[in-house]
């Protein structure tokens, strides 16, 4: 059995403020294998993006990784210098951000940005770098890639700009890609096209992919496994069909019940009551207990991660879905 491309072990990323310590990521663990897509799902503020930024070494003060390990092909990324991370970031580990207009330089042509990305990490000629940029644009479905190299970001539609961002991430055929809600702002047709391409590229190129999203519908058809985050922790993880069909954690169940496709036509959606607890004032024990219909006295103590087969959950009442 081959080793995972990425292993995150008890990762802890905290932000230190005058009012207290925000435990944005609090003991997160998972791994991703070559050619596998892991969906990291949860509400805004659950710690998904901070987990991705922690892997890439992009946490700015007052935040920092205070504990745990991030093993990338056996190498612990925690504690690497900025120069050491820079050599990995973009070449062997890439990230696709949510808004390409925030990551693409508006005053440089697409070709210039892609060629510079290649030359920053590899000692190749400008002509070779340009040919790779052209071929990669074609790979992600951009028509007339040679001509489009001369275009600027504002000359592309939103879907095409996102394809460019994906192409830049693929330039070095990285071993790992972190995708932070890259299709959220796109219409469903373009979103579907990009998801299909990402899935094919991950399989064909053997890349490991962490897909961060709040949309269970997206990862249902994309990811082989799903990890559900709440209040900085993974509360459930397992193969996609297990998590979606036999949810063990009430929070996962709540997310599923808020999807229109999972309720009868015309029936109201069952929203999760209340709001996520403030980062500086999380309840003791299970952080979800103040919103949970199954909470009992025991939930005031910290639940441990339990498992059955390939599925694991952090809950005292894993029979929640059957009871519902």
UniProtKB/TrEMBL annotation:
Span of domain ABC transporter: 6-256
Transmembrane segments: none
Domain of life: Bacteria
InterPro entries referenced in this protein's UniProt entry, alphabetically: AAA+_ATPase (IPR003593), ABC_Ni/Peptide_Import (IPR050388), ABC_transporter-like_ATP-bd (IPR003439), ABC_transporter-like_CS (IPR017871), Oligopep_ABC_C (IPR013563), P-loop_NTPase (IPR027417)
Keyword Ubl conjugation recorded: no
UniProt keywords, alphabetically: ATP-binding, Cell membrane, Membrane, Nucleotide-binding, Transport
UniProt family annotation: Belongs to the ABC transporter superfamily.
Membrane topology designation: Peripheral membrane protein
Pfam families referenced in this protein's UniProt entry, alphabetically: ABC_tran (PF00005), oligo_HPY (PF08352)
Subcellular localization: Cell inner membrane
UniProt-recorded name of the protein: ABC transporter ATP-binding protein
SMART domains for the chain: AAA (SM00382)
Organism: Microvirga puerhi
A single GO molecular function term of this UniProt record: ATP binding
């Amino acid at each position: 059995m081959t080793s995972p491309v990425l292993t995150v072990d008890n990762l802890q990323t905290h932000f230190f403020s005058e009012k207290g310590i925000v435990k944005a990521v609090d003991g997160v663990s998972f791994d991703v294998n070559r050619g596998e897509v892991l969906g990291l799902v949860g509400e805004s503020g659950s710690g998904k993006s901070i987990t991705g930024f922690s892997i890439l070494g992009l946490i700015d003060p007052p935040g920092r990784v205070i504990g745990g390990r991030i093993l990338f092909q056996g190498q612990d990324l925690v504690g690497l210098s900025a120069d050491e991370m820079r050599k990995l970031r973009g070449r062997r580990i890439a990230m696709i951000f949510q808004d390409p207009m925030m990551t693409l330089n508006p005053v440089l042509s697409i070709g210039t940005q892609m060629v510079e990305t290649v030359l920053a990490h590899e000692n190749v000629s400008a002509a070779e770098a340009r040919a790779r940029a052209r071929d990669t644009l074609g790979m992600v479905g951009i028509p007339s890639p040679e001509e489009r190299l001369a275009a600027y970001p504002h000359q592309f539609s939103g879907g095409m700009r996102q394809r460019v961002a994906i192409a830049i991430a693929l330039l070095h055929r990285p071993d790992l890609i972190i995708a932070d809600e890259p299709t959220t702002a796109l219409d469903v047709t373009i979103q579907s096209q990009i998801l299909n391409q990402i899935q094919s590229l991950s399989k064909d190129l053997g890349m490991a992919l962490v897909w961060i999203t709040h949309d269970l519908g997206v990862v249902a058809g994309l990811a082989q496994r799903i990890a559900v985050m709440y209040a900085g922790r993974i509360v459930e993880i397992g193969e996609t069909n297990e998590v979606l069909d036999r949810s063990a954690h009430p929070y996962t169940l709540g997310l599923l019940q808020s999807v229109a496709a999972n309720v009868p036509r015309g029936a109201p959606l069952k929203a999760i009551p209340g709001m996520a607890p403030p980062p500086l004032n999380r309840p003791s024990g299970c952080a979800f207990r103040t919103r949970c219909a199954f909470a009992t006295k025991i939930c005031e103590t910290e639940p441990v991660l339990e498992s059955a087969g390939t599925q694991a959950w952090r809950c005292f009442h894993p029979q929640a879905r059957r009871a519902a």
